[in-house]
Amino acid sequence: MPTILVGDTNIWIDLKAGRLLEAAFSLPFTYAVPDLLFEDELKEHEGPELLRLGLRVEELADHEISAAEDLAARHPRPGRTDIVALSLAITRGWDLLSGDSSLREAAQREGCKVHGTLWIMRELVRARILTRTEADERLEDMRVAGRRLPRMEW
Length: 154
Prior knowledge:
This protein has helices at residues 9-17, 21-25, 35-42, 47-53, 62-74, 80-92, 101-109, 117-126, 132-144; strands at 3-7, 29-34, 56-58, 95-97, 114-115. It is α/β, with parallel strands linked by helices. Helix 7 links the parallel strand 4 and strand 5.
């Protein structure tokens, strides 16, 4: 069964800024987002390209919406769409992809496995889709585009 990763908006913006969307979709993962996040934040921007690459847009069931409301009560800092992404990951037993510190913290407190942009980049290097030099260059592209990411630790 493939690993399913629920992405927040920051991840897709980072990967686009680093010209890594296609590369990320060549990894052996399935990527998903909740329909609310897609409609509110991605549809008009990265959405069409992400759908073409294979992004799954998942509709939340009633119990997943209730779980999101419970999560929002316990974790007031992440935004509404971020909480919905966390709810989708938790209720379906999937991992979360997030670059948002408050969402990452909430995920860790809830016991949800969470990864970020640098993890995807390490996976691209490990799969020999990128070299370390290329990864460093793409990370610099992200920084130049205004994305705030730490230095790559190999």
